[in-house]
Amino acid sequence: MFKASDVGKKMVITTRPDTPIYDAIRLMANRNLTALAVVDAELNLLGVLSEKNVLRLLYETVDRANQTVADYMSDQVSSLDVNASLIDLCDQLIESDSRMIPLTEDGKLAAVANRSDLIQGILRVKGQAI
User: Fold this and answer.
1) What's the CATH number where 28 sits?
2) What is the pTM of this model?
C-alpha cells in the first residue's frame, strides 16, 4: 500500500515566522512555490504561508516592509502523518483550499505533498508509466 511519504517531497523549503514577508514572497516567486511551510528551529510545523495569504498585500495601502511571515501565515494548518494512506492524502487535498499538505513524523515536518505529486502517485498506483 502506498503512503503519503511515497509521493511527498522530502527536500522541503521552509520559512520561519520572523522572516520578513517580502523575503518569503521572493523565495516563493524564485522557486515557483505555491506555499511555504512555516517552522521553528526544531522543525515543528507552525503554519503555512500560501499564495492566497500573500495576495492580501495588493489591497493594503500601508507600506508593509516591516511585516513578517507571522503577520500573513495561516496557523490553522491541515497536516498528515507520513504514514497516512494516499487515499487520506487525496481526501485532504480535495477538502483543503491549499495545494500543499505538510507531512509530519513525530510532530516534526518531514515532507510536503501537493496535488501534482499525488497525480504522479496515482499513475504509479495504477501501474501506468509516467
Assistant:
1) 3.10.580.10
2) 0.88
